[in-house]
Amino acid sequence: MAAGACEAAHPPQKPRRNYYAYACGFLASMTSILSGYDIGVMSGAVIFIKKDLNITDVQVEIIAGVLQVYSLVGALAAGRTSDWLGRRYTIVLAGCIFFVGALVMGFASSYGWLMAGRFIAGVGVGYALMIGPVYTAELAPASSRGFLSSFPEVFINVGILLGYVSNFAFAKLPLRLGWRLMLGVGAIPSLIIAIAVLVMPESPRWLVMQGRMSDAKRVLERTSSSPQEAAVRLADIKSAAGVMEEGDSVVSVPKKHHGEGVWRELFIRPKPHVRRIMVATLGIHFFQQASGIDSVVLYSPRVFDKAGLNKSAALLATVAVGFTKTLFILVATFTLDKFGRRPLLLTSVGGMIVTLVGLGTGMTVVGHHSQKVEWAVGLSFASIMAYVAVFSIGMGPITWVYTSEIFPLRLRAQGASFGVVVNRMMSGAVAMTFLSLSNAITIGGAFFLYAGFAIAAWIFFFTLLPETKGKSLEETEALFGRKKDAVPALAAAAAPGELQMGAKKDVSTIPLEDGRV
Questions:
Q1: Collapsed DSSP state (helix, strand, coil) of residue 255
Q2: What is the tens place of the pLDDT at every residue in 346-360?
Q3: Do residues 181 and 481 touch, judged by C-beta distance below 8 A?
Q4: pLDDT at 178 > cutoff 70
């Protein structure tokens, strides 16, 4: 009775916010501006590129979507690079690569040089899309991981909006100068990001994998809400990494991990829970793009033009799309840790189905009438705005949040990179086929097709994706069927004298940074 009264008088307090962790997640996520800016700016720039370089519709599709295909190179390399160099320096590398690519595009004198710049920038985008969410998830406390891990999608949207604004700002310049400035100014944020990231700490989980326990402890103390939470997080990470301790002494840690053998564990001989994690990861990335978001974002000026708006009004309406997308991603950012991943994701995809059907209906009516049909134009515009809004409250951010938090520690970087590979493949496929698809089955038919993919996505998510809200990164494996064989972190922290054993028993002793082994 007394204990109950005490609990009523002193209810559990919410973990206090750690603004240092917020700042680090904010900076890391800014790398996603690079991808968003390119998508947004290219939607308007291709209009002027086509006219200046006298290229065909097929070449327009290629130049608009090929960066996403090129980004596969960066996404594949980023997993191994981040295991070798660390998460922080991989972010710096992403910014530097995109900087060079943006400059090449800005000074491109021909279609060939423009394609070369797209390749370099694409590699940088692949690096950025993979490493930002992984770094943020590994640094963030469980209580605010959804909030912090949704920042990459926030900055994708900020980048898209900046790209739209750049289109509108430079559209009235001379033809040969305008589109080159639109593409070239993307070098500015990439340079700022590369420099700013140098003040950030390294991921504590990567530090533990390298045997740098005291460095990891210092980072966790700075990014946790309390010393007790830092101790629990450190014990959890050590357990997942296979560190063995007795009392306050480290007995041994696994051999330094630089990503060796991960592909085999992911694809050739995966454990059952790893196989389920890979299916979830590849599926959510596939459906995020297969449901047509890049067609709406990249070709919205053309859609508005088909709906009867003039060029200036179409570009201005596109800015409104970018603003709406950015506004609603902020809604998701502040509600992910409150409502959870599944409710927002399923609500989002359900809304996408409805709005894609509305957009397909409106554009079909517009396409079958020679005169302007006001209600169909209004339905098309409203459906686009509603589509990007509902996409942004769930499907957009949760794809990156979810896949950054479900992998085991050793497999996280490279596993997440394969999700980005599928994401970029589908993004490129959608972007490079929309005009041809529209010519074959009409614009309305294309959006009905995307609605079909959204229906399949809802079924997939409802069936296969468990809730991860409030779980530590080390706990999420259990959601996919892994039976833990490690001492729970809380118990380990409460009983420091007991031997803490990780899941790996085959370990080799290496020296730690302070000379102990």
A1: coil
A2: 999 999 999 999 999
A3: no
A4: yes
